[in-house]
Design brief:
Shape: globular
Number of strands: 15
Number of helices: 4
Distance between the termini: 55 Å
Number of domains: 2
Strand content: 25-35%
Order of helices and strands: HEEEEEHEEEHEEEEEHEE
Structural class: alpha+beta
Length: 242
């Protein structure tokens, strides 16, 4: 029995643990000014392949206190915003770092971008003691106190809408006539073609989402995905930087 216990302990010790690496450079946070992006997180990887090209980040926070998450827009009071950003710095998010889990081949990876620095944590729910992970769990606006918010949450209404398309291999498939700019003339982005709709077209196109994802344009059938652009995004190229 003693031999078995000792062997089990040795096996546990031999398992590769999380590997953490830090930037060798000092933290150089970007100043908070205006309504620019200051904090964002997204989840990538996993068996489902989360965070693929063109997907929305789960959370984005801007210098004016506005936050976009889960299709809703929230707004923090200035004092609540200052506290949150101070806590982000205290959690070490102003310095780039990575925490890997080598034993997990299809790990979920949490990515937090704070004032120009990016923190990556593989399998974050297994590293709940890390300051970055504890801070991340606070970034669900649904749980923010009402006293910290300047206004009630509302649906996020984007000023611009990216139309992401790919030509179908089966051109015999049915597709509704696409009512906007030709789908095949978009710029390469997010693994397909991309065009941006603005103004009234952006609002009207969002209502097409319930009519399926197969559309015909200039005699060809495409799959179409509509991606609302966030306040810091204005072009298709921004989708690769978010």
């Amino acid at each position: 029995m003693v031999a078995l216990v000792a062997g089990a302990a040795l096996t546990a010790c031999d398992r590769p643990g999380p590997k953490e690496s830090y930037s060798a450079l000092p933290a150089t946070p970007e100043p908070v000014s205006g309504d620019g992006l200051v904090l964002r997180w997204r989840m990538t990887g996993g068996i489902a392949g989360l965070g693929g090209p063109g997907t929305m980040p789960e959370f984005s926070l801007y210098g004016d206190g506005r936050a976009v998450a889960g299709g809703k827009e929230y707004r923090l009071r200035p004092e609540a915003l200052r506290r949150l950003l101070a806590d982000a710095r205290a959690a070490g998010l102003a310095r780039p770092r990575s925490v890997d889990s080598p034993e997990v081949s299809d790990a979920l990876v949490l990515q937090i971008r704070f004032q120009g620095a990016t923190t990556k944590v593989a399998q974050p729910n297994e590293h709940g003691g890390l300051p970055a992970v504890r801070f991340w769990k606070r970034l669900d606006p649904r749980g923010w106190p009402a006293s910290d918010q300047a206004a009630p949450a509302r649906a996020y209404t984007p000023a611009r809408l990216a139309v992401l398309t790919g030509e179908l291999a089966d051109q015999s498939a049915y597709g509704r006539p696409w009512p906007y700019a030709p789908l095949g003339k978009g710029v390469p982005a997010a693994g397909g073609r991309c065009t941006v709709l603005t103004g009234k077209d952006a609002g009207a196109a969002q209502r097409l989402a319930g009519q399926g994802d197969r559309w015909r344009s200039e005699g060809k059938v495409y799959s179409v995905r509509l991606r609302p652009l966030l306040p810091d995004e204005s072009t298709c190229a921004d989708l690769t930087r978010s």
